[in-house]
Amino acid sequence: MCDNEKEEASNLKEEFEWVLREEVHAILHQLHSVLVECAHRFPVPLYGNEGQKQDKFILTSQPEQLKCIVTLTGDSITHADISFKVLRQMHTICRTSINQDGPWKLQQIQDAANHLQQAIGYIDNVDKHYVFRSSEEVLHIIQCLIGSLQRARTALVLPKKKAIDELMKSRNMKALSPNLPEDLAISFYIQSHKLIFVAYQLSSVHGTMRIDSCQSDCAVPWLSDVLFMLTAALHMCQQLKDKVCVFSQYKDFTVGSRSASMVFN
């Protein structure tokens, strides 16, 4: 190896050591701040956030097919006055309600919160004085973070919709007061920054089961904030991953010795 190559290798290793010693911790600290702020926007108890925030929304559709006045408390609809026109019987209006004795659970909110809590935990488990010794160590924690953050975002953006028979047998449907007729069903779920309400009607047409539906939605302000922060955090993780990957080809690069323990769950 010529002198220029030795000098280049020495400079590269010095930069690598600086990234592991300084920049990784700085970015993890920034990420931690973003994720804690994100946690504090959730309406459920999460990382020091008291939760149980309450919001009220009105969902309607034109031409007045349905109307729903909803109170969202934490991750549940604790009250709702619901009315909608029965499809193909437009003069028939069906009314039902949700009350605190049988709230409608929006599991997506709690699932997203759990994944966010896990991501924050990965950073909390890294001692601020820990000396990273290789790119593999850093890439491992980044992948853990990306996985948790992607799952948190997916829980809100891509709802797992239930089959109609599963929905009609659900605990949420059984808690409605009064209960709906057997050929009617409703559903609430989160999709991106919106709360969605759907009314379904089942009918048999020439022996074939047919499902008609109408729906309405409304924006939930805190969801927009949460999704923005999750996306920003994922971008920060990807930038750090890309930078560290540049050095991952240098398997013989190591730095110092371990100064503190670090646990990955």
Automatic annotation (TrEMBL):
Domain of life: Eukaryota
InterPro entries named among the record's database cross-references: RAVE2/Rogdi
Pfam families cross-referenced by the UniProt entry: Rogdi_lz
TM stretches of this protein: none
Cellular component GO terms, alphabetical: RAVE complex
Family: Belongs to the rogdi family.
Protein name: Protein rogdi
Species of the source: Arctia plantaginis
